[in-house]
Amino acid sequence: MNTLPISQQVAIPLAEIEIQAIRAQGAGGQNVNKVSSAVHLRFDIQASSLPEFYKQRLRQASDQRVSREGIVIIKAQRFRSQEKNRADALSRLQELVRSVTVVQKKRRPTKPGKNARKKRMDSKTRRGQLKNLRGKVRD
Predict the structure, then answer these.
(1) Residue of 96, 79, 71 lying closest to 6 (CA atoms)
(2) What sign has the CA pseudo-torsion 93, 94, 99, 103?
(3) DSSP character for 76?
């Protein structure tokens, strides 16, 4: 497997993805200080062979994993094994690139219907009458 498939037509060559093993943070006893099981993935959007549409959408994505310089940085340390963390980082990159291709449907603002407005006003009137009954009793 020399590529990371994104869609049927688009794939990222693994040579464009920089993966570095680092020491994981958190619990793990002595093992955490000796073994580099976490993975730091770096992917330069501009230098990649992705189509221009993908590059543009990735740069515009409001995702904290995409830096100002246009580099995707993913740190995977969920698992204790380096291989599992590597696979996790690659799948997260794949998920990120796929997510920018989904075009959100434009929201058309709507107004409440006539019946809904009438219902709201009736409930407000009823509530006001109930509160009015709580007042002091007059002779």
Answers:
(1) 96
(2) positive
(3) E
> From CA 40, how far away is CA 74, in angstroms rounded?
6
Q: Could you tell me the sign of the dihedral formed by the alpha carbons of 19, 20, 26, 31, in that order?
A: positive
Domains assigned to the chain: 3-99 (3.30.160.20)
pLDDT in tens, 66-106: 888 888 899 998 888 889 999 999 999 999 888 888 888 89
Rg (CA), the chain: 27
Rounded distance between C-alpha atoms, residue 74 and residue 19, angstroms: 10
**Is the Cβ–Cβ distance between 64 and 73 less than 8 Å?**
no
Q: Rounded to an integer, what distance in angstroms lies between the CA atom of residue 125 and that of residue 110? A: 25
Please state, in angstroms and rounded to a whole number, the distance separating the CA atoms of residues 43 and 136.
Answer: 72
Q: Are strands 11-13 and 17-22 parallel, antiparallel or unpaired?
A: unpaired
Phi first, then psi: give them for residue 38, nearest 5 degrees. Answer: -80, 160
DSSP characters for 29-51?
Answer: TTHHHH---EEEEEEESTTS-S-
pTM over 0.85: no
